[in-house]
Amino acid sequence: MSRRDYYEVLGISRSATDQEIKSAYRKLALKHHPDRNPGDAKAEELFKEAAEAYAVLADTDKRHLYDRFGHAGLGSAATGSAGFDPTVFTGFEDILGGLGDLFGFGDPFSGRRRAGAGRGADLRYDLEITFEEAARGAETAIQIPRQETCDACQGTGGAAGSKPRSCPQCQGRGQLRYQQGFFTVARTCGQCRGTGSIIGTPCTACRGAGRVQRERKLTVKIPAGIATGQRLRLSGEGESGVGGGPAGDLYVVVLVQSHGLFERDGNDLLCELPIAFPVAALGGRVEVQTLDGEQTLEIPEGTQTGTTFRLRGQGMPDVGGRGRGDLLVTVSVLTPKKLTREQRKLIEQLAGMLPRHDATPSRREEQAERGIFDRVKDIFG
User: Fold this and answer.
1) What is the tally of structural domains in the chain?
2) Could you tell me the pTM of the whole model?
3) What is the mean pLDDT of residues 47-59?
4) Which of 172, 152, 130 minimizes the C-alpha distance to 291?
5) What is the DSSP letter of 230?
6) 3-class SS at 152?
């Protein structure tokens, strides 16, 4: 019976790299694995065919022989289960990218048990802080519920003085194995849940689980400059591991409250500052609120609405400690809504003396205009 070209089986070119060969086989193994296709004889044959092709092309010497002489170059391996070598699959779990649990199998050729000690779960805590706390940094206490190692049994799950016995179903291996064609597949033992042992007398405090639920109070240090969506990792503050495994981590996700005056743009702060009409026309000094208190801002003569001034170093601190952003102040000119008779008269006089866009004011007009401006400033200032 003729066999297909191994490169054709994996769908790769003859110049494929080792990584491309592994990747191609991984896709086919996941697609045609018997656990995904129960009772499908064709899928099982394709699975075997892909395994055979990979066993040859993943081996440098065998690939060299195959490239020169084809199937005949593999000698006695060219018959029956040609090219298949179980030792090639020692890293089977790595080939499948850690997806072995999708089918309930681990590494069927290494004899390694995946069950037993397990890392604890990571936890998430959403923390809301004020804008000022984000700007200056803070230290706050949080309280989280989590699974912790049982003090009574020290995580073994057994009562004091009792000893676990070997699981009779898996003989202490934690896995049940069966033959799938020429392939050995391992599943986690359902009786001992992969631990390889059975607890005879469960601990009364944790009921044999080895862990108990507790509320734990923790202190979180918030660095200055942190922004909404950023998270803090507290290593080892997640749930305790199973069977002596390491604890998970706690991730604190930060939500910064909005501010009544400032809007954040990266490390820069934006704000709007209303100024009186005389100040915009004649210039002057105004006080601007910053994170560190008030600061004087010089407004030049003839400032228009929408003009933005930059106060360097008055923004948010960089969370990595690399200085501070700037404060961008955009001014808006206030227009009086109600005028007295005298105010209205002065503004009408001013309007009559202001130059048109198509004419250049004379020196006398400029002096008269300045006088009116000064009087307007006295009234509205």
Assistant:
1) 4
2) 0.57
3) 90
4) 130
5) -
6) coil
